[in-house]
Amino acid sequence: MPSKDKKIFNENEAKVIIEEAVSHMMPEGRLFVRLANWLGTGQSWARNRASMSSDQREITLFMSKPYSHRVDQWRDIRAVTNQTDIESLKGIGQHVDFYYKIWKEKYPPDLIVSKPESDEKGAEVWANKTFDRNVTENAAAVEELTRLSEAANLMSSGYIETTGCTALHYSRDEWGRVEWQWGQVTQAQCSVTVREARGNGSAWTGLTSFDVDRIDIRSISTMALDRCRKTLDPVRIEPGRYQVIMEPQATATFMNLFMEVLERADPEQRKGGPMLLGHDKSINRWRSKLGLKIVDERINIFHDPADPMVGSHVAPLHRRVDFVKNGILTSMASDYLDRLNEISDIYPAFPTSSYTLQGGDVSINDMISSSKRALLVARFTQPEIVDVPSMLYSGFTRDGLWLIENGEITKSVRNFRWTESPLFIMNNIEQIGVEQQVFDPVTSRNPLGGSFFSLSLNNVVVPPLKVNDFSFTSTIDAI
Amino acid sequence: MMYKKTIKLLLFIIALIPTVNLSGQTRFARPDTVPDYASYRHLDECIAAIRRMKQQAVLADPVWLDTLSILTQVEKRLPQEVVKYAGECVSRIDADTVPLKQVHMYAEALLVADRDEDAEKLYLRWADTIDNNPAGEGFWQKILTYLNAIPVRMDKALSVYNSGLPKFHPDSVSTNVTFRSMVGSRLLAVGDYSLANQIGREIIEITDTMSDKYRTPAYNFSASAIIFPFLKRLMPQEAIDSLELSTEAYRNYMASIWKSVFGHEPDLEIGPFAKKAPPVAGKYWYSNLNSTGEIQAILPTVTPDTPAITIVYFAGGGCHSHYKKVDLGRNNGIASCWGAIHRIRSIMKQYPNIKLTVVSNTFGSFADAPPLNPQQEADTLANYLLGFHGLKGTHVIYETDFIRLADYDNRKVDIETDNQAQYKFGPFSLHTANEVVIVDELGQIFHFGPLVDTRNNLEFTVDSRIKAVMSRAANRGKN
Fold first, then answer.
1. For A125-154, what is each residue's pLDDT tens digit?
2. B410 to chain A: which residues are within 8 Å by CB?
3. Which of A180, A392, B124, B393 could cysteine-pair with B356, CB 3.0–4.6 Å?
C-alpha cells in the first residue's frame, strides 16, 4: 500500500471522488470513470553536472460514456480533468451528459456484449521503497558518480526515475451494474552513460525494475566508469565470424526482434513471414511453424504474470503463455477476437513485449574463462531488417566490445557492423547464463491511465548468451 | 471605458449579422453549368465543368439515349455548344507536354472537343512511359474512355482491344473481371454483341481459375449479365415472350441456344430455377410470428413450404462475430451483414405477405462474448436477428461441426453444413453470407443470389424478382 508520508490517492479516497462525480450525472447508459494518480522523482545530469532534480505528480480523472458500439466503432463522449473539487466534478459530468444526450439521438442503440474477466491475479508490482524514494537519496549517488568521473577525466550523463501510480476504475453497464477495479504499480529506472572526454571510449549501464532496491545505483555508476576506462583506445580487428558472449542487454536486442515477429501473427497481413509456412488450400488456412522446433532445445520463452519482474496484477486477460518450449514454437501472439473465434479461448496470447527467456547457471566470468578467442559485447544498436523470411538484421555494436583471448579480456575493440538473425543465434548457442532483468525505457509515467485498464510494461528478463559464429561484416569508426 | 468598448463590440456584431446570413445562403449554390474560364485555376476544374455540361446535355435530350437504335446511339453527337466550350477548355492541353498523371480524364475531354488525334497521341505517349499494371487496368480504362465518348469511338476501342491483352496476374483476378464486366456492359449498350459475348466468355475462364475462396456468385452474374442478353438476341422474340423467366422450360430453351452457339453444354449456371427448394435443416428453431411477437423456440417444421412465397435468407455463420476486424466498406464482412439485414427488413416491410426464413449456423462465439455453447449461441443469434434487428419470421440455426488443427495451433476448421451442401447449384454455393433464395408458391426456386443489388444486373435484383414472382402467382391464381 502507498506510504502515508506521501500524498497519493488510496482506494477509499479515490472511490469517494468517483462517487461524487457520478452522483451529478444521469443514471442512463454505460459509464467509465478512472481516477489515476502518480507521483515520482526525476533526476538527470549531463557532462558531470546535474541538470534536473524534481518531484513530479499528476492526477487524471477520465470519464467516458459510450453512446454507440455499432459495427467496429466505439463511439463515446470523453472528458478529462486534473481537478477533484466538487465544482469540477459536477462540470465534467454535465459536459459528458450534455453531449451524450445529443449524440444518443443520432445513433441507434446497439447490442453491447462485455468482455469476460478472469479471476486469475498476477503479481503485485508495487514496492514501498520505490514509492518512498526521494531526490536527496538519488542526488548523493549522482554527486559521487560525477565527482569520480570528473577526477578520472571522463564525462558522465544519465537519469534516475522512480514513480508510484494508483488508479481506480469504475464501470457501469446499461443495466446499472457497477464494478470497481483497483490497481497500483511502481516503476524505477536508471541509465548511466560515461564517455572519455576526447571521445576515445564509451560505456553504458542501466536497469529497470518495479523495486528500486533491485537497482544498485552506486554499483551501476562505478561499473559504467570502470567499463569506460576499459574501452579506451580500441584496436581495429578483422571482421568475420566470431564466438560472441552477449551480455543480457545485447541478448535483449535480439530477443525483442524475435518477439516482434510473434506479434505479427495475422497471416493475411504478412504473407510469407518468418513464422509462416504457407497457405493450405485444403483447409483454407495459413499454416505456421507452431509445433515445430525452431531454435535450440535449451530455449524457453514465456510470459508469466505471476512474476513481478514481467507481470502485472491489473491485466485480467493475461495468463502464463509459453511462446517457445524446449525450442518448439508453442504460441503466437493473437488478439482477443482471433483467439475467441478461432480457438474458443478467452485468453489472448499477446504480451510479447514483456517476457522471460529462461537462463542457465553459467556466469559471464565462466563464459570468458572458457573461451579461447571470442568477443564480449555490451550492447547492439540500430537493428534494421535485411531479409524478412530469415529474420536477417543488420546493426552496430556499442558501448563496449572486447576481445577475449585464452580465457582473458585482452583489449578493447573498434565497433563492428553486424548482420545476423535471431534464429541463427538461437540455433548456435554454446552456453546460457543466469537470467536477469534488463533496461527498457518506461513508456509512460502513468501506466494505469491509458485508454484501457490494463498495465503494459516492457519488462524483459534474459540471460547472457555465448554464441558461435556470429557474423560481423565490417568495422565502423564510431565509438 | 469598459462600457464604451462593450458598446462598440455589440455594434460591430450587429453590423456583421446580415453579412453572415447572405454568405450562408450562397454557400450551397449549385455548381456552375456554364464554364467560367476566368475562375478556373486548374485544368481539372475546367474538365469537371465539361463533364457537368455533357451530363446535362444528355439528360436534357427529349429522347432517352438508350431508347434509340444502336446505330443512332453510337453516332449520336453532343450539342455543338458543349463541343465548343470543351474546345476552349482543352485548348490549354498540349498532347505532347501535358502531365500523364490523369491521362484518361484529359483524353475524355479531348474526345468531347473532337480532338481525336490529340487523344490518341496522348495515349501513345502514355503507353511509352508506363508499364501496364498486372490487372491491365490502364488497358481497360482506355477502351472504356473510347466506348463512353459521344459519339462512341468504336473503331478505336476495337483497335485497342485487338492490340493484345496485358498479362494476367493471379492476384488481380477481381480487377480483371470488374473491368471486363464494365466494358462488356458498355459493348452491349452500343450494340457489339459479338465482342461482348467474347468478353463474357473471358470472365468465365477467369472465374474458373479462381480458388473457391475468391470465386463468388457475383462473378457468374457478371458473365451472365453479358452473355445472356447476347443469347437472347439469337432467340426469336416470340419465344422469349411466351416463356417466363425462372421456369424450367426457359432454362432448357436457353441451354439449347447456348449449345447451338458454343457447341457444348452451358458452362455457366443458368440458374437453379424451377428446382424444388430443399427444406432447410437445423437443430434450433425460433419464431416471432405469434400474436405477441415474442421470440419463442418452436418445433422443427418444413420450410420453405407451399403455398406461401418464401424468402430464405442465409445470414452466414460468424457473420456477426468479426465486427471489430473489418473496415466499414459496403462489401466487407460485417458491414455487408448489417446492410443485408437492413435490406431484408425493408423488403419484408414492403411485401408483408411474403414469409421469411432466416438460416444461420453456430460459430462458437458471438461478438465480444466469451465462448458460447451451441444452445447459448443459438439463443443469442435469435435474439439478435429476430429481436434486436426486428426481422419477422422463422429462424433456423444449424449446429456447425468442426475439426481442430494439430496441437499448439488448435484453430477450428468448420465442416460444411447440410444447408450449404443442399443449396449448392453448380458454381452457386453458400460459402458467403447474405444470400437469398426466393421460393415461389409451388415451392420451386425462383431466384438465387446475393442480396446486394447492382445496377449492372438489373435482371437479377431481388426487388425485381420479388415483383415478378408475385405477379406470376397472381396470374396463376386468375387462371
1. 889 999 988 888 888 889 988 999 999 999
2. 343
3. B393
The secondary structure of B43-85, three-state, reads HHHHHHHHHHHHHHHHHHCCCCHHHCCHHHHHHCCCCHHHHHH
Q: Select the more confidently predicted residue: A42 or B81.
A: A42
pLDDT at B238: 64
Taking CB atoms and an 8 Å limit, are B321 and A341 in contact across chains?
A: yes
B417 contacts: CB under 8 Å, gap ≥ 6: B281, B317, B361, B398, B400, B401
| Chain-chain contact of B370 with A328 (C-beta, under 8 angstroms) | no
Residues of A in contact with B408 (CB under 8 A): 290-291, 328-331
Interatomic CA distance for residues A300 and A462, integer angstroms: 11
Residue among B379, B410, B420 with most chain A CBs within 10 A, to mutate: B410
Angle at B12 between CA B9 and CA B18, to 5 degrees: 145
Closest among B202, B193, B248 to B222, alpha carbons compared: B202
Question: Cell numbers of B51, please?
Answer: 463533364
ipTM of the prediction greater than 0.90, yes or no: no
Q: Does residue A325 have a pLDDT over 70?
A: yes
Assign residue B308 a region (left: φ > 0; alpha: ψ between -120 and 50; beta: otherwise).
beta
The β-bridge relationship of strands A355-357 and A460-462 is: parallel
Cα–Cα distance measured from residue A275 to residue B332, given in angstroms and rounded to the nearest whole number: 28
Interchain proximity A284–B412, CB inside 8 Å:
no
Q: Please judge whether B371 and A111 are an interchain contact, meaning their C-beta atoms are less than 8 angstroms apart.
A: no
Cell of B349: 416491410
From CA B228, how far away is CA B234, in angstroms rounded?
Answer: 10
Entry pTM: 0.71
Sort out which chain A residues have CB atoms less than 8 A from B369's CB and list them.
113-114, 116
Beta-carbon separation of A340 and B338 below 8 A: no
Of the CA atoms within 13 Å of residue B377, those in its CB half-sphere come to: 27
Q: Is residue B152 over pLDDT 60? A: yes
